[in-house]
Amino acid sequence: MTFCEYKPGLEGIPATQSSISYVDGQKGILEYRGINIEELAKSSNFLETSYLLIWGGLPTKDELLDFEHEIRYHRRLKYRIRDMMKCFPESGHPMDALQACAAALGLFYSRRALDDPAYIRAAVVRLLAKIPTMVAAFQLMRKGNDPVQPCDDLDYSANFLYMLNEREPDELAAHIFDVCLTLHAEHTINASTFSAMVTASTLTDPYAVVASAVGTLAGPLHGGANEEVITMLEEIGSVENVRSYLDDCLQRKAKIMGFGHRVYKVKDPRAIILQDLAEQLFEKFGRDDYYDIAVELEHAVEERLGHKGIYPNVDFYSGLVYRKLGIPTDLFTPVFAIARVAGWLAHWKEQLAENRIFRPTQIYTGTRNASYIPIEQRQSTHDRAFLAALIAE
Ligand code: CMC
């Protein structure tokens, strides 16, 4: 095969076949295993949706009860993981802490029996169960407090908010948080999922697969955008400043955070649901000052960039929901990871079922047949002032 056209970012190039989720970016449709996201948001919950994604079908009542029970049982962290977290700097980003903890799980459960269904099941359960505990524990520890142990009486989402805020959450708040997890659980072959698949294709352990995906999700062009949206709304400061802020960004060719998507050319269906969830929360707990700025920005961006298919993506309204739930801004992306672990694990399983190691090709643009120059005759290719500044840093 001599297929040589290079597409930056692999845009439009199929890198796999998958039956996990489906996106129609022109019509704004997202389905998990064929079921529309609106329907799942309304009728399912995060653990049932995770089961659907990972095992390919909706569970029966007993299957779901067993799955929930196993996850409840495995929520606690080994004390050595907690001790390791105590050594992390408080100023470190929680995504870095999460990536380190996810990878560290592999030290405790290192048997790589990838052809054993019991091993696969245990890894799925442990990762889904422990990741929220890690996120909440890091939050409390960096404030100098002991982590709160998971509460067996609370379901998955209520338990996370309980471990994070040290009190039982309001019922509506816990329900809305659970819907947010469902919305973020899976989204075809995005950057972090691709990175999970590449790692999985080497037949390494599932903890390394998730750790590599967490690292990829952390970037501001991917999961990190939800955090940047709040920083941007903060910077804008008032509805009156929206248009001048936008003009300035467009002039500088800066990206407006929470807008645009490689696949969606209309408003992301998840953004529509998240906006509605934000409004439900505002009705019960009071309006967020940034909401009016966000709505005005959406109108202004639509006027200026709608013709390019630039509309709010999933990250635009999620931050406003999380703020109202009392989640600190730098935990928005870890919360995204709590949800997306379901999708990563589904792709891990799918990859294992028909594995071939990823090994794409490249188009070489460097020099050929260069001579080896003895060290005394070389001239530096680096700017010395730049290097001195780097060393001083
Ligand atoms: N603000 C202003 N212009 C934009 C934006 C934006 N947010 N996004 C795309 N464009 C313009 C871009 O300038 C380019 O214009 P032109 O053709 O005139 O040069 C055109 O739209 C295509 O942009 P691109 O960067 O080539 O598109 P991409 O498919 O490579 O990037 C994206 C997609 C999501 C990385 C990008 O839209 C972006 O950086 N958005 C802001 C960050 C963000 O919100 N990320 C979250 C993505 S959704 C959830 C997730 O993946 O985690």
Rg to the nearest angstrom?
Answer: 22 Å
The biggest beta sheet reads:
3 strands, antiparallel
Adjacency order of strands in the biggest sheet: 1-2-3
Helix residue percentage: 55-70%
The averaged pLDDT comes out at 95
Number of helices: 17
Instruction: Using the coordinates shown, work out and report the CATH topology of the largest domain.
Output: Citrate Synthase, domain 1
Q: Give the percentage of residues in beta strands.
A: under 5%
What number of structural domains do the residues give? 2
State the CATH superfamily name of the largest domain.
Citrate Synthase, domain 1
Bound compounds, each kind once, are:
carboxymethyl coenzyme *A
Order of helices and strands: EEEHHHHHHHHHHHHHHHHH
Instruction: Please mark out the parts with pLDDT under 50 across 5 or more consecutive residues, or reply none.
Output: none
State the shape: globular
At the first level of CATH, the class of the largest domain is Mainly Alpha
Number of strands: 3
First-last Cα distance = 49 Å
The helix-and-strand class reads mainly alpha
CATH architecture level-2 label of the largest domain = Orthogonal Bundle
